[in-house]
Amino acid sequence: MMYLLILLAVSLAVSAVGWKYFIYFFSLGYGYGVAALAVAMLVMFGGAISLPTIALCALFFVFGCRLGTYLLVRERKATAYRKILYDPSLQKKKPIGVIISVWLFCAILYVAQVSPVAFRLANTAEGLPVCDLWAWIGAGVMLCGILLEAVSDAQKNAAKKRNPKRFVDTGLYRIVRCPNYLGEVVIWTGALLSGIGASLCVWQWVIVAIGYAGILYVMFSGARRLELRQAEVYGNDAEYQAYAKKTPILIPLLPIYSLAKYKWLQA
Questions:
Q1: pLDDT on residue 181
Q2: CA dihedral 195, 5, 54, 209 (to 10 degrees)
């Protein structure tokens, strides 16, 4: 259990960037927090690492650094994003209890998300039997998710440069309206799969399940927020209305076209 406390300390330290600006708990603290946790796991379990666990941690590191850097650059360069980021409602000073609660929630969630790999390493170090096959499968799924997210972000940037005032419905955005969030779902599904065959006990699977359920909630909540924001901007555009009615919001082939009515997804 000590290794979980160390990982939590690392996660708290990196996500503390949110004390500078509240939204950083969910953006920079998220991306760079996952990257830092990957490094921490390799350092702590140096004697138990294998090729697939190195690959998994490397993918966490690449994912976290890419996402954190992308968000940081977008904040600096994109006027539209700065308007959202520095919205007056977000500038209001939060009660200290709220800030601490969000900080702890984020730090714990990030540890739970990477926990399948942490448990695989810990169980290997304890001499428990592990199967590398699912680690490789998980790594392959994670790689697909990272590529999906990166390509989605690049396609959106390119489309916005061509026409900043138009919604994006080209490339991967023809398949779902939030392919970048879909990429995240795929990434963390890969992490979940990597825990199979690693001799995880019941309490370890409970933590893994909490992390997976938590990030799914965050992604669907994010998709709902984006839908509401786009409805305000493009709601009177007949072309956008047609696009939204025929294109699933997050999961391909799953006929969920709107999340607006699900207020329990508000986060």
A1: 97
A2: 20
Are 134 and 51 within 8 A, CB to CB?
no
Dihedrals φ, ψ of 121, to 5°? Answer: -65, -45
**Is the distance from CB of 250 to CB of 220 less than 8 angstroms?**
yes
Burial 84-96 (b: 16+ CB within 10 A, else e): ebeeeeeeeeeee
> In degrees, to the nearest 5, what angle opens at C-alpha 47 toward C-alphas 104 and 65?
45
Distance CA 257, CA 244 (A): 7
3-state secondary structure 28-69: HHHHHHHHHHHHHHHHHCCCCCCHHHHHHHHHHHHHHHHHHH
Q: Which residue has the higher pLDDT, 153 or 83?
A: 153
Q: Check: CB of residue 41 under 8 Å from CB of residue 114.
A: yes
Give the pLDDT of residue 20: 86
- Tokens encoding 113: 């998300």
DSSP H or E run through 105: helix 96-125
Tokens of 90: 């977000």
Task: For residue 32, give the nearest of 52, 12, 54 by alpha carbon.
Answer: 12
Helices (H), 126-201: 132-162, 179-193
pLDDT tops 60 at residue 89 = no
- Under 8 Å between Cβ of 194 and 138: yes
Q: Mean pLDDT across the stretch 128-157? A: 96
